[in-house]
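The freezer alarm interrupted the setup, so I double-checked each line after restarting. Inputs confirmed:
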Amino acid sequence: MKSGIEKEEFVGLFSQLYKPVKNFIYYKTGDIDLADDIAQDTFLKVWEIRKDVRMATVKSLLYTIAGNLCKNRFSHQQIIFEFAGRFESKERPPSPEFEMELKEFHIRLQQAVGTLSEKNRVVFLMNRADGYTFKEIAENLGLTVKAVEKRMKNALNDLQGKIAHKL
Amino acid sequence: MTYKEKLHTNFKLIKMLNQDQSDHPFTKKEFDEMNFGEKILRVAEGIIPPEGKSEEKALADLLACMEKQPAMENLPTGMGKQPATKIRILPRTFRAAAAVIFIILGFYTITTVLGRESIRTKVAEHSSLTLPDGTGVILNATTKISWDKDSFTGKRTLKLNGEALFDVIKGGSFVIETKNGTVEVLGTRFNVFSRKDEFRVSCLRGKIRVSSDREQQILLPGEEAGLTPAGLTKQTKSDIENAVSWTEGIFYFEDKPLVSIFDELERQFNASIRYEGERSRLITVEFSNKSLQEALEVICIPMNLEYEIQANRKIRIFEKR
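Predicted 3D structure, all chains:
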């Protein structure tokens, strides 16, 4: 099988995967500046070892490297996740009351997402915010689809408990 | 619903999600009919992680890094073991160039102490400059800003005392710390005024968060936050552009204490004013920094005051008898 990647391929890879990988790091750490840093280092690492990289497996490689780099930087630090996402209404034009209701819901949801365990949070957000299917998430993170499903379920249960508690 | 039933519904929901990525918008009626788990999942689709560095910039930085290490052919393949190489976003030569640009552009003085860069304008001086990240700043007279040289490109935080207009380049967070409160940029163009106990932030474009003590306000275009005895309050201004007219040499004040206008006059004309009248009076006025005499007339005539220009730019202002 062909191994090694060229510069054009690498740039293509970047435009395809930079955003999702960066988001993945953000979901893990809750720090966008750090996410920018680690995402860059991740791609740089892949570039350094490009001779041994195969396009077929590069996706999961990127996520593995990113995950490792997060661990290296944060092995002794407790992460406090503060979600800085924005609210976007999908109904246009929404009635002001409905918009308020959604906004309220959204804020509570964000707070609750911040308190999820890292594993559950990453899977939940990759599926919900980035729109990855369970199969894609499983491939990228080196998990089984069953495991992804389980984490999704746990995340949803946790969120229900936390949001209902506040309502 | 029992716990078991809830788990079962969730299980079905999750299964469904796996096949169908539902990104259709929903209406109020549809939302009301959803069960709780569904609501969570659908609303979560609207979560947008923060933008951070733009993709173009990230690619440019990355390519710059790759150029720097062309001889990586024999690098050991063990990954994630050594600490990652960090790049400086602004190379050394560039920093020097940036510093030179600073000096050429304006009247202000630039000093570096213990890794902190400070810029200060004197009385009657305005100046515009570009920060290392490309953000444009216009400083009003007697204003000081400072930032940490090494960490600024990573964490954009600066301190301000005085008044300045910011045009922030897209990127990570941008925070301005003042004695009276903190301004965090969520978008772009805005004006910050923080002198003595007076604190005023006007948002022209984008979105900013202002906090002072424990209070917080989010400002949208056309809104202004100010520190009043009641705390940090927000109001909508139809004439928000007036807040930044100083950048064109026009000074606009609405219902402001007369004494604070005299402070501004002193700063703009390098004068010293002795005011002998009632200190609590308010005024709405607009003057230009072209002529001191004209400015004094614009202020004094409607307020029934008289002024007297003495030697060394000393001015005495008193009530008409």
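Quick read of the result. Chain A touches chain B through 70 residues (CB under 8 Å).
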